[in-house]
Fold these 2 entries.
Entry 1:
Amino acid sequence: MPRLAYLGPEGTFTEEALRLLDPNAERLPRATVSAALTAARTGDADGAVVPLENSIEGAITTTLDEFAWGEPLLITAELLLPVQFSLLARPGTEIPHIKRVYTHPAAITQCRAFISRELPDAVVVSAPSTAAAAQEVSLPGSPYDAAIAARIAGEHYGLVELAGGIGDRSDTVTRFVKVSRPGPLPAPTGSDRTTLVVFLTDDHPGALLEMLTEFSVRGVNLTRIESRPTGDGIGRYFFHFDFEGHVADARVGEALAGLHRICGEVRFMGSYPRADGVAPQIKRGTADAEFAEAGDWLDRIRTGHV
Ligand SMILES: O=C(O)C(=O)Cc1ccccc1
């Protein structure tokens, strides 16, 4: 039974994602994404489940930066989870009396319309997670009047639901990933995704285009690209890429090798099954068999067998 750390406490969306990814895992709640990843790195846990991005606000930057700067980890699975938010409070609280709301920043950005319509005068404070907010609000002396969290977190911490489905959109999805210390890769399934972090050592005109060209000429379809500051001053960035395919695919392997040749550092973050099961688009001339045939053709030339 794997032991998986996650952004806790009990009742977070991350816990729901973990239960779906690995129903048999032992769950080890941690207070932050960083603490969950540290547990995976040190061996306190066999792996971790953390949020990576959502369909409204984009990346969870703590996760991206941990992946780039921390000890290497490997993504082995992903999950897309539709999330529904509820306004939760101690029994007896009424919406007009709510002055201070506590929740995770991703919930604040996804419930903006509700907050400005129903709680225009409330101060909204960032919490380490939605369930941490619900837990805090449940304490009798809490400085907060309400939390925004999953309905189940309200049930868990003895809060009542004052409003449900309060997200700006009903179709919001969060993408979670399971990570472990580097080891064997999940086998290719025919519907896979690969994640990389790429650092440039030599900034010059066209550097980003050169990276993109490595994908483009091999027919590799990108599914996410993100730039993050390196911290070394304004204008200094590194890049995250997600794209279709598995590193075992010839076109993906060739693109990686090309990036390795032209970029400062390429951190391979894993090839793993896609949660949506979508098969990659394979352009003419970029299938494994076509790469193999072209390699054989080149060998014949080089060995004088044309
Ligand atoms: O705080 C949580 O419950 C999390 O798992 C992070 C999060 C917050 C809001 C939307 C999706 C994930």
Note: Residues 1-82+170-183 form a domain with the D-Maltodextrin-Binding Protein; domain 2 fold (CATH 3.40.190.10).
Entry 2:
Amino acid sequence: MSGLPAETDRFTAELDAAVEAHMNWTRRILRCAVVRSTPGDDVLDPQAHALCHFGNWFMANRGQFEMLDAAAAGRVDAVHQAMHDAIRSICTRVMQGQPGSEADLETFEQSQGELIGLLARFKTLILSKAVQLDPLTQLPLRYGIENDFRLYQKEARRNRTQLYVAIIDVDHFKPINDTYGHPVGDRVLQQLAATLKAALRADEPLYRYGGEEFLWLLKCKSGAEARQSARRLLATVGTTPVPIDDEETLRLTVTLGLALAGEQEDLASVIKRADLALYEGKAAGRNRYVIAEG
Ligand SMILES: Nc1nc2c(ncn2[C@@H]2O[C@H](COP(=O)(O)OP(=O)(O)OP(=O)(O)O)[C@@H](O)[C@H]2O)c(=O)[nH]1
């Protein structure tokens, strides 16, 4: 174990394995070209880039790559396909008894070099992002919000869906610290983070935004769906007891301030509106959600 979250360990191990599989594939093709044996359907298929082990794995995880760097993820796709196209052309010619073209060989070598470089950069990004996780709750800290928000905003524009920014603030948290002590307060925050994370969909990121504040990017189709999600979250928090020790449990409530992100609005402006809605919810008695006026 690296000490990093298990999810990061799994992802980087899979990334290494996928790169290794591609290198083995390259060796196999080289061998076929030298001894002029048939490289197999998986190489000659025009969709080979989507059928190989790496291509399959990349497509299944493309969302994660895009979250890290959308432009570089698109480039991985393009150079990987260029690599496969070049090798298919080389193999086809060799099997017809002709020498492969130098231009194809150059494309293949350049694409492979760029692909390996891109993947190494992604690995660095994944590891540095893991270091940006809050050690208490294991939730991402605020560094990545800007990038994720822009991606989701673009996706909402493309799909004609909606993106809400929600700030979730624990109600009356100070008395918990004052009554039970800071370490218990820490454990309560930890448990709450796990409850919130479990209640949200996997593609709705949740960040530890501040001390006892969380930020949630909520993707939905309508205002009605956003209200339903907010109500569900309040109900989950309200009905999940938080153990303090062997005998005592607490019931927590949270208040949510939500704002619908405008198509071109920047994150700071949406957060400001969500924050105002949150204060409104606190003033109105807490344990509720308020959606900012458009
Ligand atoms: N244990 C613990 N406490 C924290 C942490 N971060 C912030 N806090 C505490 O969270 C409390 C926030 O208090 P307030 O802002 O007054 O809010 P509140 O008591 O939750 O009241 P309302 O938000 O108005 O409902 C403060 O006592 C902070 O010390 C943390 O990481 N661990």
Note: The CA atoms of residues 259 and 272 lie 9 Å apart.
